[in-house]
Amino acid sequence: FLTILESIGIPSQYHEQIRKNYENHAKLNAHKIRLYDGVNELLKHCQNNNVKCSIVTSKSRERTFNILSEYFGEIKFSSVVTPESVKANRGKPYADQLLQSCLESGSSPSDTLYVGDMEVDYQCAKNASVSFAHALWGYGSHQKYQRYLS
Questions:
Q1: Helix or strand or coil: residue 114?
Q2: How far is CA 134 from CA 37, 71, 144, in A?
Q3: Cα–Cα dist 57/91, whole Å
Q4: Contacts of residue 118, Cβ cutoff 8 Å, sequence gap at least 6
Q5: SS3 assignment, position 59
Q6: What is each CA distance from 34 to 30, 40, 54, 121, 135, in whole angstroms?
Q7: Within the chain, which residues score under 50 in pLDDT?
Q8: Residue 16: what pLDDT?
Q9: pLDDT value of residue 2
């Protein structure tokens, strides 16, 4: 979040207040989240068939766990990794979070599939040497990743 503020030229003395305002508004509007059809069913299917599923997100730890408890209470994730979960406290496209998730879930990067919906997710997977699948509901065209997926 702070990297984005820096990249758009917001002076650093405003970063913390903007972050707090953003987190407060995100918390107040969490009830507006709508899951894509079939997501819960897919996660339950994976869980019932011993397929490890983890979360790697750019959202804050507090916000992530609030969303997970509200919408995915029955699902047991192998790991949940936020930027705060890694020592460098840096998010995607750096591989830190994705590699931390592999470590926590006991999966090797070569046996991991990362499903993401943004360019930064693709870059993160590439930087971690992890296979990538672009979620079609995401931001940007899946055509961009076609070569990587082949």
A1: strand
A2: 16, 22, 9
A3: 8
A4: 138, 139, 140
A5: coil
A6: 9, 12, 20, 21, 16
A7: 147-150
A8: 92
A9: 77
Helix (H, G, I), strand (E, B), or coil: what is residue 56?
A: strand
- Here the tokens at position 54 are 């983890």
Residue pair 96/85 in contact (Cβ under 8 Å)? The answer is no
Residue 2, token pair as written in the block? 């702070």
Alpha carbons 122 and 131: distance in angstroms, whole number: 9
Other Cβ atoms within 10 Å of 146 Cβ, number: 10
Between helix 119-128 and helix 96-105 the angle, nearest 10°, is: 60
Residue 37 has a pLDDT of 87
Q: What does the block give as tokens for 124?
A: 């993160």
Amino acid letter, residue 87: K
- Give the position of tokens 């990538």: 132
Structure tokens given for 132: 């990538």
Residue 83 and residue 63: Cα distance in Å, rounded? 12
pLDDT digits (tens, 9 = 90+) for 31-57: 899 888 888 999 999 999 999 999 999
1-35: b (≥16 Cβ within 10 Å) or e? ebeebeeeeeeeeeeeeeeeeeeeebeeeeeeeee
pTM of this structure: 0.82
